[in-house]
Amino acid sequence: MTPTDLSCAGLTDRDAVRSNDEIGRAGSVVGPMDLSATDDVIDGTPVLSLLGEADLATLPTLLERVNRFVDQHAGRRVLLDLDGLGSMAPITVGVIIGARLALRGTGGDLDLVCTQPGVVALFTRSGLDRTFPLYPSVRAALARTG
Q: What is the pLDDT of residue 108?
């Protein structure tokens, strides 16, 4: 994440720094306040699945993990699976928007998987459900054509 990206999100570079003890095994990252991220490739499509709470306390972990995932899969269509989130603060939507813009800038794209009512409501209230189609499952998102 560049300093410009951080300042647009209201953060400093210090906010995005994490300690090595937060990095887990096998592509997982466990943050200080119950957020983990696991990446996988399903039918050739990279999928980042989030589990826990996406809020101000876990924002540095979310930023680091999503940005690393985007960098690793530049130019590709990826899925962000939000179904494991118990809650998602509005500030985290900015991370998702930034990830999609970064991927589109390299010829890739980002689609969302989510059926959690609170998270879906956040996208619906903001009108972002028209920008980010919310797929009911990874399989449904993988079946998308075009």
A: 97
